[in-house]
Structure formats: structure tokens, C-alpha cells
């Protein structure tokens, strides 16, 4: 009986560790319909390299605007939480979002929060992020219109963005 108990407990702990270390579960991300946390996320400053804020291997240009600026100016925005250096779905998501930004940058903001180097940054805590990738779309009023855990498709995000900016 003792060996079975140890096996069950060991298996449970292994499953918990495996699940918790995967890309994005056990989360309490803010819910759709709630106010977006008004964070002062790091933005790229003159003279800084994009690698100071991002682990993507090519510049993604998603570190130019702060959440607080977008909310203050009633600018809808997409926020992407992901650390491409260790999360394969995050690389795909980053490229996909960069493509959408190229289409819609004049109508809304696109913001990437890469917490690989600094998982203690205030934005990560404000948004209660405990994994990645996560995407949220925020409307002009600063309300979370959509929350997308895990990786999303280009077509689904494109459709959601079109509804958001109408």
C-alpha cells in the first residue's frame, strides 16, 4: 500500500510540474468584459536595441507604445504576452501579430510584453500572467474585448481586429 501511495503522489507531482511548466495553464488572466489593467510597460527608447526588451530573433516593432498611453488616448490595442526565446508557439504568434500590425498599425496599437528576462515586471503582475502565449484585444473604452489563451490563427485574430476597430 505504501508503494502505491508514493507512486500516486509522485505521478501527481510529476503531472503538476509538467503542466505548470508548459506554455500557459493555471492562469487568472483578466476576464473579457473587465477593465484592462493600466500598466506602464517598458517601451523602446531612443538608443536602445530591441533586444533590450524582446527575445525574438528579429525586431518585431511591438515595443513602441505603452498600455497606459493607448488607454489614455482611447486607442484600441492588442497585447501579446510571450517569450519567444523559450516558447515555440510564441515565435509563431509574434510573427503573426507583426503581420497584423503591418496592416492595422494606423488604427490601433500592438504591444508585446516579453517577460523572459524580467518575469517580475509590473505589467506581468498587473495582468496576472503566469504563462504564454496570451493575447488580449482591448477596445477604445479600455475594456477587454477578447482574451485568447494559447496560440491563435491569423484569420481569427484578423476577424477579431476588424470587429474591434469598426
Structure description:
It is a single chain. The protein is an alpha+beta fold and 166 residues long. It has one domain (28-164): 3-Layer(aba) Sandwich (Glutaredoxin), CATH 3.40.30.10. Helices cover 36% and strands 13% of the residues. The chain is built from five helices and four strands; from the N terminus they run H-H-E-H-E-H-E-E-H. The protein starts with a helix and ends with a helix.
Short summary of the structure?
This protein has 166 residues and is an alpha+beta fold.
Considering DSSP H and I runs of 4 or more, what fraction of the residues is helical?
25-40%
The assembly state of the depicted protein chains is single chain
How many helical stretches? 5
Q: In percent, how much strand structure appears in the residues?
A: 5-15%
Structural class: alpha+beta
Q: Which architecture would the CATH scheme give at its second level?
A: 3-Layer(aba) Sandwich
In the CATH scheme, what's the topology name? Glutaredoxin
InterPro entries: Thioredoxin-like_sf (IPR036249), Thioredoxin_domain (IPR013766)
Protein name: Thioredoxin family protein
Amino acid at each position: 500500500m505504501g508503494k502505491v501511495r508514493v507512486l500516486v503522489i509522485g505521478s501527481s507531482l510529476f503531472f503538476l510540474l509538467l503542466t505548470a511548466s508548459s506554455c500557459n495553464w493555471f492562469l487568472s488572466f483578466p476576464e473579457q468584459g473587465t477593465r484592462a489593467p493600466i500598466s506602464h510597460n517598458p517601451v523602446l527608447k531612443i538608443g536602445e536595441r530591441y533586444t533590450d526588451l524582446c527575445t525574438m530573433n528579429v525586431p518585431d516593432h511591438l515595443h513602441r507604445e505603452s498600455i497606459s498611453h493607448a488607454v489614455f488616448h482611447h486607442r484600441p490595442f492588442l497585447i501579446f504576452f510571450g517569450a519567444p526565446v523559450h516558447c515555440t508557439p510564441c515565435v509563431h504568434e509574434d510573427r503573426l501579430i507583426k503581420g497584423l500590425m503591418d496592416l492595422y498599425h494606423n488604427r490601433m496599437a500592438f504591444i508585446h510584453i516579453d517577460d523572459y528576462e524580467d518575469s517580475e515586471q509590473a505589467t506581468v503582475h498587473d495582468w496576472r500572467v503566469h504563462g504564454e502565449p496570451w493575447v488580449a484585444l482591448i477596445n477604445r473604452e479600455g475594456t477587454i474585448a477578447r482574451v485568447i489563451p494559447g496560440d491563435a490563427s491569423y484569420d481569427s485574430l484578423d476577424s477579431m481586429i476588424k470587429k474591434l476597430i469598426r
